[in-house]
Design brief:
This protein has 109 residues and is mostly helical. 73% of the residues lie in helices and 0% in strands. It starts with a helix and ends in a 6-residue tail after the last helix.
Length: 109
């Protein structure tokens, strides 16, 4: 779940979706975005790249998980602690993580 919940892990997860055969310029740009911790920029950059369908789906799942994870950080600061809302967010992140993992599995014929 941490790959989708914590910003540094989301950034590294996104970076890993860039194909090994990507052009040197694309790889350099992705590295710059990672170094700058520019998650939104990295998502936008990857959306413009020619990625395999599974990787494209995984980018979208990370994009969906981001606002939920940021919402949990805000909820952690709330008094009284909104336990039910936090648990709902955790459940949604887990669902997205499960879908993320399935997106990388080869399709069965």
């Amino acid at each position: 779940m941490k790959q989708l919940f914590y910003t540094p892990f989301r950034i590294l997860t996104l970076h890993a979706l860039l194909p090994d055969d990507a052009a040197a310029e694309a790889r350099q740009r992705a590295d710059q975005l990672v170094a700058a911790r520019d998650e939104e920029g990295l998502i936008a950059f990857l959306e413009q790249q020619r990625l395999p369908e599974a990787s494209r789906r995984r980018v979208q799942l990370v994009k969906q998980a981001r606002p939920i994870a940021l919402q949990v950080v805000e909820l952690w600061r709330a008094i009284p602690y909104p336990h039910d809302e936090v648990m709902r967010c955790y459940a949604e992140i887990r669902r997205l993580k499960d879908e993320f993992d399935r997106a990388s599995e080869p399709a069965l014929l």
